[in-house]
Design goal:
Number of helices: 1
Order of helices and strands: EHEEEEE
CATH topology: Thiol Ester Dehydrase, Chain A
Strand content: 35-45%
Shape: elongated
CATH class: Alpha Beta
CATH superfamily: Hotdog Thioesterase
Distance between the termini: 34 Å
Mean pLDDT: 94
Length: 129
C-alpha cells in the first residue's frame, strides 16, 4: 500500500483504482469528471469513518489538474479531515497517479470537499461536542 503523500503526512488511503479505456476523452487521457467522481467517493469513504450516516457532498472547492491521467494508471486518493463541524466536515483529498509504463508517481490534483451527515433527510450532528 502506498504511503501518505508528503503534503498530507497524516492522510489515509481511501481509494485506489486502475483507470480503464472506457474512461478516456478524445485525447486518450482520463476525463476530469471521472477523477472528480473518484474524489467524491474517497471523500465519502473518509466521512463514513466518522459515523454511519447518509453522507452527502455539499461542495467541492476548486480543483486544478496538475497532470493528465493515462489509461492503466493506478490512481490513489488520500484523505484527511481538515475541519470538523457539528453536522459537516471538510475533507482534503490528494490524488496521485502511478504510471503504468514507468511506475513513477505523479501528483494529479488536490480537492477539498464539504460532506454533510444526513439522517431522515435532515443534517444531523455526527459527533458530540
Amino acid at each position: 500500500m502506498p504511503s501518505a503523500p508528503p503534503s498530507l503526512p497524516d492522510a489515509t488511503l481511501a481509494l485506489r483504482v486502475v483507470t480503464m479505456p472506457r474512461e478516456t476523452n478524445p485525447f486518450g487521457t482520463i476525463f476530469g469528471g471521472v477523477v472528480l467522481s473518484y474524489i467524491d467517493q474517497a471523500g465519502f469513504v473518509e466521512a463514513r469513518r466518522h459515523g454511519e450516516f447518509d453522507w452527502v457532498t455539499a461542495s467541492i472547492q476548486r480543483v486544478d489538474f496538475l497532470a493528465p491521467v493515462n489509461v492503466g494508471d493506478i490512481l490513489s486518493c488520500f484523505t484527511t479531515v481538515s475541519r470538523h463541524g457539528r453536522t459537516s466536515m471538510d475533507i482534503t483529498v490528494a490524488v496521485y497517479a502511478e504510471r503504468c509504463d514507468t511506475g513513477d508517481t505523479i501528483h494529479v490534483t488536490n480537492a477539498t470537499l464539504t460532506m454533510v451527515a444526513i439522517r431522515d433527510g435532515t443534517p444531523t450532528p455526527y459527533r458530540s461536542e
